[in-house]
Task: structure prediction
Amino acid sequence: MTTHTVRIEPLGAEIECREDQTVLDAALREGIWLPHACTHGTCGTCKAQILEGDADLGDASPYALLESEREEGCALLCVACPRSDLVVEGEVDVEEGVDIHPVRDRAGQVAVAEDIAPDVRRVVITLDEPLAFNPGQYVLLDVPGGEQRPYSIASSPADGGRIELHIKRSEDGLCTDGWIFKSLTAGERVTLSGPYGQFSFRPLREEPVLLLAGGTGLAPMVSMLRHLVETGIEREVVLYHGVATQEDLYDAEWFETLQAEHDWFTYRPALSRDSWRGRSGRVPALLAEDYPRASGHVAYVCGSPAMVADTMKALMKARLFPRDIYREDFFDAADRAAGTHVVRSPLIRR
Ligand SMILES: Cc1cc2nc3c(=O)[nH]c(=O)nc-3n(C[C@H](O)[C@H](O)[C@H](O)COP(=O)(O)OP(=O)(O)OC[C@H]3O[C@@H](n4cnc5c(N)ncnc54)[C@H](O)[C@@H]3O)c2cc1C
Ligand code: FES
Result:
């Protein structure tokens, strides 16, 4: 396979990139940080300017990379592959305190594949070699047939040889309906790569923490909580977990035990459809009730793009600035086709 040299400005770093490899992949494997979130050409976070050379723009969503931006020489580096030597200019700033772990390929064996709620499975993979990652990051799981899907890691970075995922079934979804919920069982060999994403716990931020999760958006929060417990980092943390019904509320006992053992942690499960002994309503509405003013906090939001967008609005209404909010949108193929959730503000972090 032909390879090309890609120079990344303003760093001036040079990397080799194959014609069948994306520029983002080549950079992350060399330990060079470039901003990215979905790695599927959907969100626009990895947009960069191609200053010199030719690239195949790949499967970039027309909503995330507009025609006018293509004409101006922009590309989404998570799907763009070189066709000649390139010079690209991206935002390469690494936030202080955030470790950079080069992307690696890993193989492993499924140790656990269990239903933990209706249409939600916990999959634990024992890797042949450990993977280093920051709490909150995700892996790309290889789906039989050649495609990949992103899943957030719920396990602790201290135990990089064991990757836990929380996976929700998507109707007619290739990876979920077609594999994980159909035939995946303990003992099966799987491959994945990682870590990816910039949604991770920021150890240098000392403000009280709001963890706001919808459905399986809980997974990265679990990794962050495990990390806090294991490292003894002291933060006041409130976790909201929003689901539809009581049956959907998984791992509640674990959070209740954590709350009983640590006075820095508060667990606030919320049901949007059922009345029960606890709170009912959607996370953004409960947040607005509990925090008319949220300034002085740092918030991490993860779930479906609609849940994330509504929660962002509630947080900003409560006077939390975009610089104090980190988000992970669980985009899927339907969101990509609709193109309604591309984030255009550079102020909003992922
Ligand atoms: C950074 C990131 C992290 C994620 N982490 C998690 C996680 O921890 N847990 C989790 O459960 N999910 C997570 N997701 C979502 C996950 O990656 C998959 O998108 C999801 O599991 C669906 O995959 P699938 O292959 O089963 O469905 P897909 O085949 O991708 O399809 C998804 C849905 O879209 C529909 N669809 C397919 N093509 C089209 C089309 N052209 N037009 C309209 N509709 C279409 C399908 O019928 C299906 O309902 C994450 C996503 C991102 C971006
Ligand atoms: S990371 Fe490239 S478009 Fe989302």
User: Anything to note?
Assistant: The two ends are 33 Å apart (CA to CA). The chain has a mean pLDDT of 95. The first helix runs from residue 23 to 29. Residues 38, 138, 149-152, 166-168, 170-177, 197, 216, 219, 328, 330-334, 337 surround flavin-adenine dinucleotide (ligand 1) (CB under 6 Å).
